[in-house]
Structure formats: structure tokens, C-alpha cells
Write a structure and sequence with these properties.
By secondary structure, the protein is an alpha/beta fold. The protein is built from 8 helices and 16 strands. A hairpin with a 5-residue loop joins strand 15 and strand 16.
């Protein structure tokens, strides 16, 4: 088999979320443009920001370098949860109880915001309330979960050690649950918001890459094709900041990649959302197939790009 055969016989994998849905398309910006709020980045942060500002009566323009919802947001495990593996014990130790509680409360506020927005706009996006579990397969991991459980108790987090509540099909040493979290289809959710942005008078351009923020009396966004967007305010909602020289971000940030697969399962698919303590990381959740059939999503094996581990 020659290299051409290999390339054509192994199709590049698509995002499960984007492959299921048709995302609205928008034109390229080819001339200068004026707006109140310029938003750079067409993922969940940029789209929600554009929706809220348009709803508040602001003139909003959102630009995206490629296609909307096709970066990190379109390739996520799509869990809506304040449980980000082991974090609260460490936050208490490094920042104190008040800051750790603020972090938790902010994430729960975000979950509730999404829940209410789905209800308000009657968005069909496979939203489901789910319990979120961290599980350990080693005694070392079990001790970590016990410390994290103590942090939950200190902060008043709605969760506890719950090995007996796990429905994983393999043995574990311990599990820590955070109750009443959620999962959804991010593309369906954000596509509904995109339509609302347009209905409210917002403007969206795709394949319009921001190259530089020009700090004039009124800030300007310079695009790849030399169009200028005149703004009163700019929101940077990119995964990696394009104005990285301002904060020397390029010296402090590195690019990481992880992998996820959606598959059919012969056995019962776990009801909860799961992530493990040990490395390599494993993220597990159920998803609904095109016809409502239950499928299994498994993610993990993260690494810095250019390195195997």
C-alpha cells in the first residue's frame, strides 16, 4: 500500500457533535466594519457573550477564524460540572477556603445559567442532569479522594464518597460524587443561540481571522485580509490569545491534545459522568445517537503536542 492509499483509506475523524448537526454558515468579512462590541472567537464563550450583549441591545459583531463551534467547543466531552477532577483540596491549600468556595459557586452559577437558558429558549440539546464521579483504581488514588471529600465537606459541596453508587463495569477502590451536574450537546445548544444572535440584530463573520488588536483611540481589530473592525470594546474569546505579546503568553502556554471516541457498547452504559484520579486520564459519559440510541463516549490520553507522554 503506498502513501496515497493510506491517506485515502483512513479518513480524518470528525467531532461527534458537529457531524450530527448542520451549523449555520456566515460570510467572510471583506471590507471595513463598525460595531459597538467586537468578539473574537466563535466557541461557547464568544457565542454566549454575543447572545447576552445582543439581548441587552448592543450592536455586536462576532468573528471566527474558521467555522463556528468547530474548535475546542465542538470537540469537548460536553460535561457541565463544577467537578474538575481533584481540585478543591488543592485550592483550599493554595488560595484558601473563600477563593475555593468562590470557584465552586461560579461553576454552579454557570451550570444554572445554561439550565435556565435552555428552559427559556426551549432548546432541544440532549440536556440531562447527571451525577459526576471521580473514581480511583489504586489505594493511592483512594487516599486522594478521601482528602478531596474532606474539602467538599469544608466547602459545603453537594457530594460525598460513593463507591457503592458507581455503575462502572470494572472494580474501583473508591469514588467521589458531586450530585446534580449535567451533560448536553454543545452544538445544538450553541446553534440555537447563534440563531438568536442574528434575530437580535447581531452580525457574524466566519473564515475571518483576527491578526492584531490595534490600540488606537478606539480599538481596531485587524483581520487576515486587512479589513478593520472599529469597536468600542473587544472581547477576546479565543482558546489561545492572539495578543500574546502583551502578556508574553507564548512563554507560559503550551498546546496539549487529548482524544475521544464515541462507540456502541455491548453492555450497560454507565448512567453517571466519570473521570479518573490516575494517569492517563479517562473521561466517560453516555451520549444519545442520531436516533436516540445510547452510545458511550470515552476520552483521555492527553499529552503536550510533539510529545508522546
Amino acid at each position: 500500500m503506498n502513501s496515497h492509499d493510506i491517506k485515502t483509506s483512513l479518513p480524518f475523524p470528525n467531532s461527534f457533535w458537529t457531524a450530527q448537526q448542520t451549523i449555520p454558515e456566515f460570510p467572510v468579512l471583506k471590507e471595513n466594519h463598525k460595531t459597538e462590541i467586537g468578539i473574537v472567537g466563535g466557541g461557547i464563550v464568544g457565542i454566549i457573550s454575543a447572545y447576552l450583549l445582543a439581548k441587552a441591545g448592543k450592536k455586536v459583531t462576532l468573528i471566527e477564524a474558521g467555522r463556528l463551534i468547530n474548535g475546542v467547543t465542538g470537540h469537548t466531552t460536553a460535561k457541565i460540572t463544577a467537578q474538575h477532577s481533584l481540585i478543591y483540596d488543592q485550592l483550599i491549600k493554595t488560595l484558601g477556603e473563600d477563593k475555593a468556595k468562590q470557584y465552586y459557586d461560579a461553576n454552579i452559577d454557570g451550570l444554572e445559567f445554561i439550565r435556565q437558558l435552555i428552559k427559556e429558549l426551549s432548546i432541544e440539546c440532549a440536556y440531562e442532569t447527571k451525577d459526576a464521579f471521580i473514581y480511583a483504581e489504586s489505594h493511592y488514588g483512594k487516599r486522594k479522594l478521601e482528602r478531596e471529600a474532606a474539602a467538599y465537606q469544608t466547602l459545603g459541596i453537594n457530594g460525598e464518597l460513593a463507591k457503592e453508587n458507581s455503575d462502572l463495569p470494572f472494580p474501583i477502590k473508591e469514588a467521589l460524587v458531586m450530585y446534580d451536574q449535567a451533560q448536553f450537546d454543545p452544538v445544538l445548544f450553541l446553534t440555537a443561540l447563534v440563531r438568536e444572535i442574528i434575530r437580535l440584530g447581531g452580525t457574524i463573520f466566519e473564515h475571518t481571522r483576527a491578526m492584531e488588536i490595534l490600540k488606537e483611540t478606539t480599538p481596531l481589530i485587524l483581520t487576515e485580509n486587512n479589513s478593520l473592525i472599529l469597536c468600542e470594546k473587544i472581547i477576546m474569546a479565543t482558546h489561545y490569545p492572539i495578543n500574546d505579546a502583551d502578556g508574553l503568553y507564548f512563554t507560559r502556554l503550551s498546546i496539549h491534545r487529548s482524544y475521544a471516541m464515541v462507540t456502541r457498547a455491548t453492555g450497560k452504559i454507565p448512567e453517571g459522568m466519570y473521570i479518573n484520579v490516575e494517569q492517563p486520564a479517562r473521561s466517560i459519559r453516555s451520549v444519545q445517537g442520531k436516533y436516540g440510541e445510547p452510545l458511550l463516549l470515552v476520552g483521555g490520553e492527553g499529552h503536550q503536542t510533539g510529545k508522546s507522554s
